[in-house]
Amino acid sequence: MNPASDPTLVYVYAVTPPAPVPDGLLTHLSGVSGSPVTLLAPAGEGRAPVAFVISDVAYADWAEEVLEQHFEDLQWLEETARAHHLVIETLAAHTTVLPLRMATLYQDRVRALRALEQQGRNFAVQLDGLRAHTEYGVKIYVRPAAGPEPAAAPAPTSPGKAYLQARRAHHDAREEHYRQAQLAADRIADIARGHASLHVRHAPQSGPLAARADGENVLNDAFLVPDGEADTFRAAVHAVVEGFEGIRLEVTGPWAPYSFAATPVTPPPPGAPAP
């Protein structure tokens, strides 16, 4: 591709029905890099009833070689992710949305339309399954067990033995917290069978950014819940942990169904020859 003759790329946020939002909403919505947001839909009868939500973005800022540098810039990643998700969450408040991953790019609208037409029937089926559903996240944290403490008064056992006993008690308390977490996770899975349509188990959060003084994340699940079941689902999940002192529950949402969006066929790199 020659940037001089084709200075823009097509950035795709999501798949929606072809008329997803009230008139004027997209007009006032800014996407990545502050770009306007619009719809791209196949024309003519017999086409799949889906559309891409897109922005035209500058080739100079989104070409493959430039993206490699951007992905190492945490500030750029944060700003771009925020803009990407703002578009999706705004749409999700008004219509069914199938979110796509950040930086889904096509060389031009012709190629984006071609991909939409090729995958349109599959997208339509996915959208139908997501209609009137919302994603909720459920996380369980294991609280830290109290560390071994020295005896407050002289004990009949030696200091070394007392310390080992305290260490053993600490270990047993920690194991009990993990047991409580597993029991709560099993009960939540049972609840999900009655109230949620789909369930995805994500890897627990770890690393420096996920570290918390009030516990270790051991469950990080997502549930696709019918809108009419949402309040009952949330109340039932919260009831699970009542009486458990060793764990902490966190329920997040409502979210657009990020965890339940199938990955589309990967578009060619923006600088690749046209197929």
Question: What would you say this structure looks like, in words?
Answer:
The protein is elongated, with a radius of gyration of 25 Å. The chain has 6 helices and 8 strands. The longest helix has about 35 residues, at about 160-195. The protein folds into 2 domains: about 10-130, no CATH class; about 135-260, 2-Layer Sandwich (Alpha-Beta Plaits). By secondary structure, it is α+β, with helices and mostly antiparallel strands. The model is unreliable at about 265-275 (pLDDT under 50).
Tally of contiguous helical segments: 6
Trace the largest sheet across and list its strands: 2-3-1-4
Shape: elongated
Question: End-to-end span in angstroms?
Answer: 12 Å
What is the tally of beta strands?
A: 8
Whole-number mean pLDDT: 83
**The CATH topology of the largest domain, please?**
Alpha-Beta Plaits
Biggest sheet overview: 4 strands, antiparallel
CATH architecture of the largest domain: 2-Layer Sandwich
Structural class: alpha+beta
Helicity level, as a percent range? 25-40%
Order of helices and strands: EEEHHHEHEHEEHE
Radius of gyration: 25 Å
**Number of individual domains:** 2
Give the low-confidence spans. Answer: 265-275
Question: What oligomeric assembly is this protein in?
Answer: single chain
Tell me the strand percentage band: 15-25%
CATH superfamily of the largest domain, by name, is Ferrodoxin-fold anticodon-binding domain
CATH class of the largest domain: Alpha Beta
